[in-house]
Design brief:
By secondary structure, the protein is α/β, with parallel strands linked by helices. It has helices at residues 15-28, 44-51, 71-91, 102-115, 130-139, 148-153, 197-210, 227-239, 254-259, 275-282, 293-302, 313-323, 326-335, 339-345, 348-359, and strands at 2-8, 33-39, 57-58, 96-99, 118-123, 142-145, 160-162, 183-188, 216-221, 246-249, 263-265, 287-290, 305-308. 46% of the residues lie in helices and 17% in strands.
């Protein structure tokens, strides 16, 4: 039996964590795998695992590589990391380390290389770090990518595979009635500049100016990662006089969020996968997103909304008007097929990963 370690720093909680829990639950049902979740910090993910009574191990580590800019500090960080984690790997008889976020990948990859332990680098965002690109293929035995867009951003690797995130198919979701008083847009995003929330505010402002007959509101649900960016967004909303149209809320429950909106919107042009597109399809909510990267890829599989060209005013307005038309809504529900989720994002993706574990 192979013991597979899934290490997380634990200061955040997002799509990578959800996908890993789904994979761990799948592996627990198999006789030849023993998955272990490891946390280094008592943060949001720690609270989530405790609350949901999910088994994990804890090993306190203050910092990982590249979390500090100083070269000397990074040397001391890795020495401490090496001493603590080497002992953990040996005591727990770990055969494979499977990392799911960029913050853990580098530290664990170097350690596994030294200790001759199989390492899986799971890339879940477009790889932009040039320095990592040069040494990438030497650090991991397998590279998993969560989309074709991610795959293309990663340099050559002898064993590079695409495995999409797995979603559980929802049954008997009722057709949602649109809000008659106004159009309610929604966005799931942590408050960080990478999420392009300021671009969405500009889009809503533009749509309001060109759709005077329709009232448009935007609900943004997420956690505050960058407090300065969050305050900047609030000032921008006040400056544009959109306080009555845009509301920030803390994310609590995915089902509740989709029950409150008519359409999902995103302004990101560098989304690696587009997890929220699949989730919106599961809850029968059409999406309105950029014609770029992971969004474009997921749209080809689901056809569950409308794409627009970013920074192109005519494309934005024309496609939005099409989105909210009664004709499009009828077409959307007519062609909606939940089996598309099972076909593209079903358990077969987990089987691909399981076969790779057997290879290592």
């Amino acid at each position: 039996m192979k013991k597979i370690l899934f290490p997380f720093y634990g200061d955040s909680y997002g799509g990578a964590h959800i996908s890993t829990i789904n994979l761990v639950n799948y592996l627990k049902s198999k006789k030849n795998c023993d998955p272990v979740i490891l946390l280094n910090k008592r943060g949001k993910f720690y609270k989530y695992l405790k609350r949901n009574k999910i088994e994990f191990k804890f090993l306190k580590i203050e910092n990982l590589l590249l979390q500090k800019k100083s070269i000397l500090k990074n040397i001391f960080i890795f020495i401490n990391f090496y001493n603590l984690c080497s002992k953990f790997l040996k005591q727990n008889n770990i055969n494979i380390v499977h990392c799911n976020t960029i913050s853990e990948n580098l530290s664990w990859a170097i350690l596994c290389k030294i200790k001759n332990i199989s390492f899986i680098w799971h890339q879940r965002s477009l790889l932009k770090a040039k320095k990592i690109k040069y040494i990438f293929k030497y650090l991991s035995d397998v590279c998993l990518c969560n989309s074709r867009a991610t795959f293309n951003s990663v340099p050559y690797h002898p064993l590079k595979k695409i495995t999409y995130n797995v979603f559980i198919k929802k049954n008997s979701i009722k057709k949602k009635k649109l809000n008659k008083r106004y159009i309610q847009l929604g966005c799931l995003a942590r408050f960080h500049k990478d999420k392009k929330i300021d671009d969405m505010i500009d889009i809503v402002n533009m749509l309001l100016k060109n759709n005077k007959s329709n009232k448009i509101k935007l609900l943004i649900a997420g956690e505050i990662i960058d407090r300065n960016y969050f305050y900047y967004l609030k000032k921008k909303i006040i400056k544009l006089k959109l306080s009555n149209n845009i509301k920030f809320v803390k994310f609590t429950d995915i089902k509740y969020f989709f029950s409150r909106i008519d359409f999902l919107i995103s302004a990101r042009d560098d989304e690696a996968f587009g997890r929220t597109l699949v989730e919106s399809y599961l809850y029968k909510i059409p999406y309105f997103v950029t014609n770029m990267a992971g969004h474009k890829e997921i749209h080809k599989m689901l056809d569950g909304g409308i794409l627009y060209t970013k920074n192109h005013k005519n494309s934005l307005i024309i496609n939005f008007n099409r989105l909210i038309s009664k004709q499009y809504i009828r077409e959307y529900y007519y062609k909606h097929d939940i089996n598309k989720v099972e076909k593209n994002f079903g358990e077969n993706q987990h089987k691909l990963i399981l076969n790779l574990y057997k290879y290592l």
